[in-house]
Amino acid sequence: MSTRVSGGVPTEMQLGLLSPLHLKKLFELMGTTYIKLGQVLKPGIKDFLVADLNFINDVACILLLMGTILGFLIKLLTLSDRLINFHSMTKNQQEEKEEELLRIKDVKAGEEDAASSDKINEQRSRLTNLI
Length: 131
Prior knowledge:
Blueprint: H1 11-14, H2 20-37, H3 43-130
């Protein structure tokens, strides 16, 4: 039984004990052994070797499929991270634009206040000149 590590990947797979390359070598070794000993083997042993070869082939296919699925999931996670980063960047840019608009409004309001206070001062000076 394999020991699980983070990410659910068996330790044997991480160590390369069940890698597709290892299985291919094992498959070739068993195949050459079968070919070399094919004429000498008893029928029962021959069936076991064929079953072993089929099992190793099936496991190799499953591992290749798992590799494809894991590769797809990694790409999907990378894409989701990029989307999250883009969304947060866009949100930050939007907040910065809103802050800039508020600053512009404050400056305009200050200019209007200054203009109105200048008008009030002019009117006061006119009134004082008239009196």
